[in-house]
Design a protein that fits this description.
By secondary structure, this protein is an all-alpha fold. It has one domain: Four Helix Bundle (Hemerythrin (Met), subunit A), CATH 1.20.120. 66% of the residues lie in helices and 2% in strands. Strands 1-2 form a two-stranded antiparallel ribbon.
Length: 227
């Protein structure tokens, strides 16, 4: 079955650049140290490579599903970027659907990068001390919350079979890493950390607190606040 429209793939240099760029940002904020953290970062790397390889290199998901979806594709153009997007096709292929999907994914990723950046700033400023203020007053692992939002944003922006399968593995890896870190923190800070755990959720605060969570200023070393 032939398909019209442009073939918007085969851009392997662009795929490699984007994977490297986003991996650089992840490494800048998460800064893995031990073997457990590097293994988790390896899952992130595999996710990014799989994502951008399909986004710009070869549309493997489209290739595997085209025989089943067939005429479900608007104007039978599955190999350009608009109609090669599964969510856009699922919502009828309209420009409005494309804008909603891209806008929603961008909002999730911006929120995720805000949490990654603020979390890194607070941890760096604490120099090994227990951090319970700023965004850490709303979640014990806000950097991982930020990572989860970025990953979900990517799944909304460009879902593929490989990334959908890999996302739960990635989320599990960082949830496990969070438990490992909590055992270390409990051993180091004792009851002060246990009290913090009792009053603060691990990753996701109640919906009523999300605005404050995302907009919380970063406390400075002198006890004040930075935006």
């Amino acid at each position: 079955m032939g398909h019209g429209g442009e073939y918007a793939y085969g851009m392997w240099v662009v795929a490699a650049f984007n994977a490297g760029l986003f991996l650089f940002f992840m490494l800048s904020f998460l800064k893995p140290r031990g073997g457990e953290e590097w293994r988790s970062m390896g899952v992130v790397t595999a996710f990014l490579v799989a994502l951008f390889a399909e986004m710009y290199g070869f549309p493997l998901t489209i290739y595997l599903l085209i025989g089943w979806l067939g005429d479900a594709y608007p104007a039978l153009q599955p190999f350009n970027h608009k109609f090669g997007h599964l969510w856009v096709v699922a919502f009828g292929g309209s420009t409005f659907a494309w804008a909603v999907v891209m806008g929603g994914s961008l909002a999730l990723m911006v929120a995720g990068y805000m949490l990654l950046s603020k979390g890194w700033t607070q941890i760096h400023a604490a120099r090994g001390g227990l951090v319970t203020d700023g965004i850490y007053a709303y979640a014990r692992h806000p950097q991982y919350t930020g990572l989860f939002l970025v990953i979900i944003g990517f799944l909304v922006q460009w879902p593929t079979l490989l990334t959908v399968l890999m996302a739960p593995i990635l989320l599990y890896a960082y949830a496990h890493l969070a438990r490992v870190e909590e055992r270390r923190a409990e051993a180091e800070f004792g009851e002060a950390y246990n009290e913090y755990v009792r009053r603060t959720p691990a990753f996701f605060p109640p919906l009523s607190q999300w605005k404050a969570f995302l907009t919380a200023p970063v406390p400075d070393a002198a006890g004040g606040e930075r935006g």
